[in-house]
Task: inverse folding
C-alpha cells in the first residue's frame, strides 16, 4: 500500500513539473533569461558616463558664489595660515573630584518617617484642584548623581541650593503646566522636636 501512494505522489510531482515547464515556455522566460545573461556578460557604458568634462587648470579661477547671501562677501582665501593653536601648550584635563562619603548625611529611620509624615500632613491640607505628591529624598536625589525621575532639568541646582539631604521630604504641588510649588520638610527637625 505504501508503494502505490509513493508512485502516485511521484507521478503528481512529475506532472506538476511538466506543467510548470510549459508555462515558462509560453511566457518566453527561458529566452529572456539567456538575453539577460548575455547582457550582463558584456556591459555597455551609458552615454552619460562617456562624457567627461574637462576643466581648465587656470589659477585665476575663483569659486563661483551662487548664493545671493554670500555673493557680496569678499572671496575666500584658502592659503595656509600659521595658527597659534598649534603653539599653545596643551591644557591638562580638569580632574573632577569625587565627593567623599564623609560629606553624606544619613537620616535615621525615625527622622525619615517624621519628615514623611509631616509632608503628608501638608499635602492633605493643599488645594485638591492642583495635583501634588510627596517624595522622600534618597542619596541618589541629593548627592549621588542628582537623579529624580521626571525632574531632571535643573534638579541638581535646586537640590544644592536648598541643601537637600537624605531623609528630607519634599511636597511638589503643580500650580501651572511647568511650575511646581515646593514644600521642604527637613529630617533634621526630628532631632530638635
Result:
Amino acid at each position: 500500500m505504501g508503494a502505490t501512494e509513493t508512485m502516485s505522489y511521484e507521478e503528481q510531482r512529475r506532472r506538476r513539473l511538466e506543467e510548470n515547464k510549459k508555462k515558462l515556455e509560453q511566457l518566453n522566460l527561458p529566452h529572456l533569461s539567456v538575453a539577460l545573461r548575455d547582457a550582463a556578460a558584456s556591459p555597455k557604458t551609458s552615454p552619460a558616463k562617456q562624457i567627461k568634462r574637462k576643466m581648465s587648470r587656470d589659477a585665476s579661477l575663483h569659486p563661483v558664489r551662487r548664493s545671493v547671501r554670500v555673493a557680496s562677501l569678499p572671496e575666500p582665501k584658502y592659503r595656509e595660515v600659521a595658527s597659534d593653536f598649534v603653539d599653545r601648550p596643551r591644557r591638562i584635563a580638569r580632574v573632577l573630584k569625587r565627593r567623599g562619603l564623609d560629606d553624606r548625611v544619613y537620616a535615621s529611620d525615625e527622622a525619615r518617617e517624621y519628615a514623611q509624615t509631616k509632608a503628608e500632613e501638608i499635602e492633605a491640607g493643599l488645594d485638591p484642584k492642583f495635583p501634588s505628591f510627596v517624595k522622600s529624598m534618597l542619596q541618589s536625589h541629593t548627592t549621588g548623581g542628582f537623579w529624580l525621575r521626571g525632574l531632571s532639568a535643573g534638579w541638581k541646582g535646586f537640590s544644592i541650593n536648598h541643601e537637600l539631604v537624605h531623609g528630607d521630604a519634599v511636597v511638589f504641588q503643580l500650580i501651572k503646566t511647568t511650575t511646581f510649588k515646593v514644600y521642604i520638610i527637613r529630617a533634621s527637625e526630628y532631632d530638635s522636636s
